[in-house]
Design a protein that fits this description.
The structure is a homodimer. By secondary structure, chain A is mainly α. Chain A folds into 2 domains: 44 residues, Arc Repressor Mutant, subunit A (Orthogonal Bundle); 127 residues, Tetracycline Repressor, domain 2. The first copy, chain A, contains 9 helices and no strands. Chain A is elongated, with a radius of gyration of 19 Å. At the A-B interface, helix 6, helix 7, helix 8 and helix 9 of A face helix 6, helix 7, helix 8 and helix 9 of B. Chain A binds a DNA duplex through helix 3.
Chain lengths: 179, 179
DNA sequence: CATCGATGTGTACACTCGTACACATGATGT
DNA sequence: ACATCATGTGTACGAGTGTACACATCGATG
């Protein structure tokens, strides 16, 4: 039965997992769903990822990496003369303008850490990297940490309530926090 | 078969659902698990709650109500002379000093709104009530909204990373936001 | 007291799931 | 060329699941 050798199968399975989770939520993640999405037999997903948690962790890793890379790019590109508050508002607007399902997935994966011990270290590491990035533009680390907390809380509120992003409101809060 | 008439069965089922979700996570919610916890036959849970979402929504409603009642009490009791920033820090410390599993459940239910349409309106309503409560002590609604966002983000960060609450850091941020 | 609807109970069905495992195949090193 | 092992494939099993439904029982209404 025409087995094809596929050196990138593992990657493709992770891609499929991300697609399934983005479209149907983490709850819909199953070996079978991912196998179907990747057009691969069931045994293949279980071979590369012994447990579902392994698969979830791999998906989160890739997603977090992309997220952090995007954020690093933002940090690099915006002119150094732009104040931190404005920079962060621009970042939020960029996120909201992009793919919504993708954004929801990112937060769903991130928040899954609340209950899944396997996911916690990755999510925690993600927070630390975000703080480190923001830190480059703030007076101290405490401020950076608070800014990231506000960022997360604001994004979650927007995603949950469906309320439109209020630029002026966010700007006022961010300016207060950055002194 | 000794059927006992039980006018409060519905409530007891909701209690059991909350207990199951608190101990094992929302993912472990099932008609059977709840029925076992409530010491009630399977058919009874499906009779009172046609679908699992109904049960989840009922659990979230009760949890949110308790949460908001606690917050209203906090708003009422603290002296009017205490500045908003200090008040919020006290609230956070109160939350963190309480039952951790309960706290995690509250946020898990709240964040479930991200992906479950049935839960969204309740979570959104919960945000609105929180904003209204905080609003009584702030200059404008935008500030109250920002404070609630920061509150949520901070709590989530603490719950996910396991980092201890940094009073001074939070106080500085809150003071900046409340002007 | 008779009746009827609300409530309670037990069981069965069809389905999905994770996992295990026997077997097939291709790549690689010698 | 051959042996070996990582990788790929198909299938089966047992455990859980939501849901439906037939039947039992109770409270209230007339």
């Amino acid at each position: 039965m025409a087995r094809r050798y596929d050196p990138e199968r593992r990657d493709r399975i992770v891609d499929a997992a991300i697609k399934v989770a983005a479209e149907r939520g983490i709850g819909a993640l199953s070996h079978r769903a991912v196998a179907a999405e990747a057009d691969v037999p069931l045994g293949s997903t279980t071979y590369h990822f012994k447990t579902l948690d392994d698969l979830l962790v791999a998906a989160l890793r890739r997603t977090a990496r992309a997220w952090l890379d995007g954020m690093a790019e933002w940090e690099r590109d915006l002119g150094a003369d732009v104040p931190p508050a404005e920079r962060l508002v621009a970042l939020i607007e960029e996120w909201l303008a992009g793919d919504r399902a993708r954004l929801e997935l990112e937060y769903e994966l991130y928040l899954a850490a609340l209950r899944r011990p396997a996911v916690r270290p990755i999510a925690a590491e993600c927070v630390e990297e975000m703080v480190a990035l923001v830190r480059r533009r703030t007076a101290d680390e405490g401020t950076a940490r608070a800014l990231v907390a506000f960022l997360d809380g604001l994004m979650i509120q927007i995603l949950i309530t469906g309320r439109p992003f209020d630029r002026a409101e966010a700007l006022a809060a961010l300016r207060g926090m950055t002194g």
